[in-house]
Amino acid sequence: MIVAKIATRSQNRRVPPWVIVGCGYVGSALAYRLEAAHHRVIATRRPTADGDPYRIPPASTAGGTAVVAVELGDPKTLTGVIPAGAIVVCCAPPGPDPQGETTALVDAARTARRLIYISSTGVYPPAGGDWVDETWPVHPATAAGRAREVAETVIATAPISNIVLRVAGIHGSGRGLVDRIRSGTYRIIGDGRSHVSRIHIDDLVEAIVRAGASSVTGAVNIADDDPEQIGVVADAIASKLGLPSPPRVSADSVDPEVAGMLTANRRIANRRMKQELGVVLRYPSWRTIYDALTPRAGA
C-alpha cells in the first residue's frame, strides 16, 4: 500500500512535477530548491521497520512536498507514483538487485518527460592522477561502483529522455572534511597523494535542475574545477583551523569502499557539465571553503 502526505500549499501546475526517488541528503536539498521555485514535488522514501514512510529530511518539510513510501525492490510500490510528464530524479543508491530495481523504476517512468540518474565517478577505474572525462572506460574497482554500472546500463534503455550524472565526492553543510577534521575523526588514507574530486551540494543541485530542463543525454561528470591531493587539502584545512594534521592510516585498515574512493587518484574533468548543462560553479575549488574558515580561538 502506498501512503502519501499530500502537499497542502498551492502548486504551479504550469511546470512539470518532479519526482525524487530516494530523498536523502541530495534529494532533500533538491526538494528545497524546487519548492522555492514553486514546483510540485513528490519525494519517495523507503518505509521504516515499523512501516512509517515519513523519514523526512528537514529540508523537504519546508514547503509542501508529498512524501511517498517506495521500495524499489518491490515494483508494486511504484504504481501511480510518477505522473505523466514528470521529471524523475533517482538519488537512491543501488540495493541488492540493481538491475531489477532500476528496471522497475524505468518501467514506472515510461510516461515521464525526463529521467535523471544520480550515479558516481566510482564507475571509473583508478586513474593514477590523470584527468578523467566521460570517454574513459567504465571499469569500477568497488562493489558500489559495479552496482552503479549495472544501474547506468538499465537507465540507458529507458524509452524516454534520460541522463546520467556521475557525481564526485559530495560536500556541504554537515558533510565534509571540515566537520570531521574539527571533530578529530578524519583520517588520511595511504600517503595522502591521491587526487580527489569534489562537488558542493549547492552546485550538484544546480546541475540536477539544469539537467531536468535540458535535452543533454549520456553521462555527464559533476565535479568542481580543482581536484587536489587529499593530504594537501586535509593538512591545509587542519592548519587553518589551528589543529594538528590528521593521521595517515593504511588502506587495508578502513572500509574497502571508502579506501577505493579515496585512493583511486582520479581528477574528474567537468567540461560537459559547464559547457553543455551550463553550470556556473558557486564552489569551484576546495579553497572556496578554505578561505572562509575561521581559525580556532587561541590557535
Features:
single chain; alpha/beta; two-stranded parallel sheet; 9 helices; 29% helix; globular; disordered N terminus
- How many DSSP H or I helices? 9
Number of DSSP-assigned strands: 16
**N- to C-terminal separation?**
57 Å
Which architecture name does CATH use?
A: 3-Layer(aba) Sandwich
Structural class: alpha/beta
Overall shape: globular
Q: CATH topology, which one? A: Rossmann fold
Taking the sheet with the most strands, its summary is:
8 strands, mixed
Structure description:
- This protein has a single domain, classed as NAD(P)-binding Rossmann-like Domain (Rossmann fold, 3-Layer(aba) Sandwich), CATH 3.40.50.720.
- It contains 9 helices and 16 strands.
- The protein has helices spanning 25-36, 98-108, 143-155, 177-183, 201-213, 230-240, 256-262, 271-275, 286-292, and strands at residues 4-5, 18-21, 41-45, 66-69, 87-90, 114-120, 131-132, 161-167, 169-171, 188-189, 195-196, 198-200, 218-222, 228-229, 248-249, 267-268.
- Helix 1 crosses helix 5 and helix 2 runs parallel beside helix 3 (143-155).
- The model is unreliable at 1-12 and 56-62 (pLDDT under 50).
